[in-house]
Amino acid sequence: MTLRELIVKYRIDHGLSQRQFAQICDISNGYLAMIENNENPRTKKPPVLSLTMLRKLAGGMGMSLQSLFETIDDEMVSGVDEAILSEDERDMIM
Questions:
Q1: Phi first, then psi: what are they for 43, rounded to 5°?
Q2: Which of 2, 11, 27, 39 is deepest in the core (most CB within 10 A)?
Q3: Nearest to 5 by CA among 29, 48, 36, 46
Q4: What average pLDDT does the segment 14-18 reach?
């Protein structure tokens, strides 16, 4: 399952709009739309999400970051700030 599919399914299953889910995750509605559309409007390429963003999305769906990684099969993680990672998270992405 892709991250996009997971988010859309979660929103539908929980009766949430994009705006509501974005607020729960503490991200902008525009950024969530970019993820769901799988296109950065500036580059016309799929967005590359940071670990921080994936953590926010996982938290918004009430799941751990590890569960998210085990569920999605298409996303790349970039911009990892190792200073904010727990030891388990560092091990998970290595």
A1: -100, -15
A2: 11
A3: 36
A4: 98
